[in-house]
């Protein structure tokens, strides 16, 4: 069993729940229309919002089947960094408690994705 299985399952659950609910409650369209279009992505805000959420679903599936983990991770990390830059940074660090809607959640997901992508670290010792 792969040592990243638990992290891959947990991350997939987070990516799926963060995406699927928005598909059924109008959240993705609202994010596209009411936020992305308003900050300069018009007329592509809804397309971009759906692309982001569909990429999360694809990444979740790839994490679960342990295939193409690095490309899925890089794309998801890019999206999370853009989320920090465009949405969360201005709100500070805390998601709840010391603030609201901050960067800590995205930061943790980025670290978890990196741990999944590089389970043996970034550098391999040639003597191993």
TrEMBL record:
Tell me where it resides.
Answer: Membrane
* Protein's UniProt keywords contain rRNA processing: no
Task: State the superkingdom.
Answer: Bacteria
Q: Transmembrane stretches, by residue range?
A: 5-24, 44-65, 72-90, 105-123
> Keyword set for this entry?
Membrane, Transmembrane, Transmembrane helix
Read off the InterPro entries from this record: DoxX (IPR032808)
Where would you say this protein principally sits, based on its record? Answer: membrane
Pfam families associated with the record = DoxX
What membrane topology does the annotation report for this chain?
Multi-pass membrane protein
Protein name in UniProt: Oxidoreductase
This chain's source organism reads Flavobacterium ginsengiterrae
What taxonomic lineage is listed for the species of origin?
Bacteria, Pseudomonadati, Bacteroidota, Flavobacteriia, Flavobacteriales
């Amino acid at each position: 069993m792969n040592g990243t299985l638990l992290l891959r399952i947990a991350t997939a659950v987070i990516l799926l729940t963060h995406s699927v609910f928005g598909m059924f409650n109008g959240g993705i369209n609202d994010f596209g229309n009411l936020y992305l279009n308003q900050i300069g992505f018009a007329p592509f805000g809804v397309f971009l919002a759906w692309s982001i959420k569909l990429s999360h679903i694809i990444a979740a599936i790839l994490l679960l089947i342990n295939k193409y983990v690095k490309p899925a991770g890089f794309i998801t990390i890019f999206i999370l960094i853009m989320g920090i830059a465009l949405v969360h940074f201005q709100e500070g660090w805390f998601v709840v408690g010391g603030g609201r809607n901050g960067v800590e959640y995205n930061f943790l997901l980025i670290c978890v994705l990196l741990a999944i992508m590089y389970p043996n670290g970034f550098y391999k010792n040639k003597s191993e």
